[in-house]
Amino acid sequence: MNKRQTRLFAIVATALSAAAFIGLTLDSHRQFDRLTNAESITPAVTHGKNVWHKNNCINCHTLFGEGAYYAPDLTKITKLRGEAYLKAYMKDPSKFYDEQRHRRLMPKQDLSDEDIAGLIAFFDWVSNVDNQGWPPRPILVTGAALPGADRSVEQQTSGAKVERGGMVAPPGARPLTGDENPIALGERVFRTATPACTACHSTAPGVNMAGPSLAGVKGRTEALLASADYKGKAKDVEAYLHESIVEPSAHLVPGPMYSADGTSFMPTTYAKDLTPEQIDQLVAYLMSLK
């Protein structure tokens, strides 16, 4: 090309790039209110945002992948933890950790009930923002898993299949036919339900997280049912496990980490989100733990 053609090419290319940039910017602004659920920004949400900044929470935590990466990403925290849990945690985080064992602790901020309610409202608003799956690998609450965040690279790039009940199966996995071992299916539910049971429970002896370890749950339940401490309606271990899944506050496990004001921190959504068959499979798996 001669100089005139080169100059013309540069001008046209710059103009087209500028037009594309302006168009994409305008389109983004057009969608911001919908993507961020702007209509859900209440005074409580605004107050919670101010509490977040006032207490420099971003010095340790992250939102949408932005922050210090020292403590868990809280973008989807209300999808993993209920309001009762979050209230109790923010009231006194020291009850949830052993300083000698875990070392780094969240400082007690002495937040008022209004501040805590605002923070929960803010986190709930954040959790419903359409963040397009970002960040792809957030730092999560111990043992937690978000949809797509705990899958292998192969699964994410080669089209993992969704089985009945919304569970994710590895690429090439044999589809469910209905004659599988219920314990194996129960383990799959344990790891892939929303929120995943692994977000709060460990199956290793003595490893208590947000919820108690489920190792030996069958034997412990038998002892509990034979004692006067049990407050629920179950008559055997299977019924107790079923009750704890669909009606977690029927019997409260002792300890400030697990309940507050007569309400269990266990999510109450499994009765709605899981089928009766999946709940039976989950019970069968839990019955198998030694």
UniProtKB/TrEMBL annotation:
InterPro entries according to UniProt: Cyt_c-like_dom (IPR009056), Cyt_c-like_dom_sf (IPR036909), Cytochrome_c550/c551-like (IPR051811)
Tree of life domain: Bacteria
Alphabetically ordered keywords of this record: Electron transport, Heme, Iron, Metal-binding, Transport
Annotated stretches, region: Disordered: 157-179
Keyword Electron transport: yes
Keyword Nucleotidyltransferase: no
GO-annotated molecular function: electron transfer activity; heme binding; metal ion binding
Pfam family membership, one: Cytochrom_C
Cytochrome c domain ranges (all copies): 43-127, 181-290
Protein name: Nitric oxide reductase, NorC subunit apoprotein
